[in-house]
Specification:
Shape: globular
CATH topology: Beta-clip-like
Pfam families: SET
Strand order of the largest sheet: 4-5-3-8-7
Number of strands: 9
Order of helices and strands: EEEHEEEEEEH
CATH class: Mainly Beta
CATH architecture: Beta Complex
Number of helices: 2
Protein name: SET domain-containing protein
CATH superfamily: SET domain
Protein backbone atom coordinates (compact mmCIF):
# COMPACT_ATOMS: atom_id res chain seq x y z
CA UNK A 1 0.00 0.00 0.00
CA UNK A 2 2.98 2.34 0.59
CA UNK A 3 6.52 2.77 -0.62
CA UNK A 4 9.48 5.07 -0.05
CA UNK A 5 10.43 7.37 -2.91
CA UNK A 6 12.27 10.64 -3.45
CA UNK A 7 10.23 13.56 -2.18
CA UNK A 8 10.27 17.13 -3.44
CA UNK A 9 9.08 18.27 -0.01
CA UNK A 10 11.85 16.91 2.15
CA UNK A 11 14.67 19.33 2.90
CA UNK A 12 16.66 16.68 4.71
CA UNK A 13 19.82 15.02 3.59
CA UNK A 14 17.99 11.97 2.27
CA UNK A 15 14.95 13.61 0.52
CA UNK A 16 12.67 10.64 1.11
CA UNK A 17 8.95 10.40 1.67
CA UNK A 18 6.14 7.86 1.94
CA UNK A 19 3.90 7.44 -1.11
CA UNK A 20 0.69 5.52 -1.79
CA UNK A 21 1.04 2.66 -4.27
CA UNK A 22 -2.76 2.34 -4.57
CA UNK A 23 -5.80 4.44 -3.63
CA UNK A 24 -6.21 4.59 0.15
CA UNK A 25 -9.71 5.38 1.46
CA UNK A 26 -10.23 7.83 4.33
CA UNK A 27 -9.86 6.13 7.72
CA UNK A 28 -7.63 3.29 6.47
CA UNK A 29 -4.76 2.21 8.72
CA UNK A 30 -1.71 2.96 6.57
CA UNK A 31 1.15 1.89 8.82
CA UNK A 32 1.86 0.73 12.38
CA UNK A 33 5.32 1.96 13.29
CA UNK A 34 6.95 0.15 16.22
CA UNK A 35 8.72 2.50 18.61
CA UNK A 36 11.76 2.57 20.82
CA UNK A 37 10.98 4.86 23.73
CA UNK A 38 13.31 6.71 26.06
CA UNK A 39 12.81 9.15 28.95
CA UNK A 40 12.82 12.83 27.98
CA UNK A 41 15.81 13.49 30.23
CA UNK A 42 17.89 11.33 27.87
CA UNK A 43 17.02 13.53 24.88
CA UNK A 44 20.16 15.63 25.36
CA UNK A 45 22.11 12.67 23.94
CA UNK A 46 19.83 12.33 20.90
CA UNK A 47 20.15 16.08 20.19
CA UNK A 48 23.81 15.49 19.34
CA UNK A 49 22.90 13.14 16.48
CA UNK A 50 20.96 13.15 13.21
CA UNK A 51 18.24 11.21 15.03
CA UNK A 52 17.06 14.48 16.61
CA UNK A 53 15.08 15.26 13.44
CA UNK A 54 13.29 11.90 13.55
CA UNK A 55 11.93 11.56 17.10
CA UNK A 56 8.32 11.97 18.22
CA UNK A 57 6.86 13.03 21.54
CA UNK A 58 5.54 9.88 23.16
CA UNK A 59 3.36 10.89 26.07
CA UNK A 60 4.27 13.44 28.72
CA UNK A 61 7.56 11.93 29.88
CA UNK A 62 8.98 10.06 26.90
CA UNK A 63 10.15 10.47 23.34
CA UNK A 64 10.34 7.74 20.73
CA UNK A 65 12.28 6.69 17.69
CA UNK A 66 9.87 5.28 15.13
CA UNK A 67 10.86 2.22 13.18
CA UNK A 68 9.50 1.04 9.85
CA UNK A 69 8.35 3.95 7.71
CA UNK A 70 7.27 5.98 10.74
CA UNK A 71 9.97 8.65 10.67
CA UNK A 72 9.82 9.10 6.89
CA UNK A 73 6.41 10.78 6.63
CA UNK A 74 6.90 14.44 5.66
CA UNK A 75 5.09 17.44 7.13
CA UNK A 76 2.21 19.48 5.77
CA UNK A 77 -0.17 21.98 7.35
CA UNK A 78 -2.81 20.42 5.06
CA UNK A 79 -2.08 16.72 5.69
CA UNK A 80 -3.79 13.77 4.08
CA UNK A 81 -2.93 11.47 7.02
CA UNK A 82 -2.90 11.62 10.78
CA UNK A 83 -1.41 9.49 13.54
CA UNK A 84 -2.29 8.13 16.98
CA UNK A 85 -0.03 6.79 19.68
CA UNK A 86 -0.82 3.27 20.88
CA UNK A 87 0.80 2.86 24.27
CA UNK A 88 -0.61 -0.68 24.52
CA UNK A 89 1.06 -1.88 21.31
CA UNK A 90 4.11 0.43 21.55
CA UNK A 91 3.36 1.82 18.09
CA UNK A 92 2.47 5.02 16.33
CA UNK A 93 -0.39 4.26 13.96
CA UNK A 94 -0.87 6.28 10.75
CA UNK A 95 -4.35 6.66 9.19
CA UNK A 96 -5.69 8.28 6.02
CA UNK A 97 -7.29 11.58 7.05
CA UNK A 98 -8.93 11.84 3.63
CA UNK A 99 -8.94 9.69 0.49
CA UNK A 100 -5.38 9.43 -0.86
CA UNK A 101 -4.72 8.80 -4.56
CA UNK A 102 -2.20 6.27 -5.87
CA UNK A 103 1.16 7.99 -6.31
CA UNK A 104 0.35 10.78 -3.83
CA UNK A 105 2.81 11.53 -1.05
CA UNK A 106 1.38 10.77 2.38
CA UNK A 107 1.80 13.78 4.67
CA UNK A 108 1.18 14.39 8.36
CA UNK A 109 1.12 17.52 10.49
CA UNK A 110 4.15 17.30 12.77
CA UNK A 111 2.24 19.29 15.40
CA UNK A 112 0.10 16.19 16.00
CA UNK A 113 -3.27 17.86 15.32
CA UNK A 114 -4.24 18.11 11.65
CA UNK A 115 -5.59 21.64 12.17
CA UNK A 116 -2.66 23.03 14.18
CA UNK A 117 -0.66 25.65 12.29
CA UNK A 118 1.87 26.44 15.02
CA UNK A 119 5.36 27.12 13.62
CA UNK A 120 7.72 24.14 13.61
CA UNK A 121 11.35 24.21 14.73
CA UNK A 122 12.74 23.68 11.22
CA UNK A 123 10.46 26.28 9.60
CA UNK A 124 11.26 29.00 12.16
CA UNK A 125 14.86 29.10 10.91
CA UNK A 126 13.66 29.67 7.32
CA UNK A 127 11.49 32.61 8.42
CA UNK A 128 14.54 34.42 9.80
CA UNK A 129 16.44 34.23 6.49
Amino acid sequence: MIEIKTSKLSNGEFNRGVFATQPIPKGTLIHEAPVITYPNEDHEHIEKTILEDYVFNYGANHSALLLGYGSLFNHSYTPNATYDISFEKLTVDFFAYRDIAAGEEILINYNGDVDCDDPLWFLEDDAED
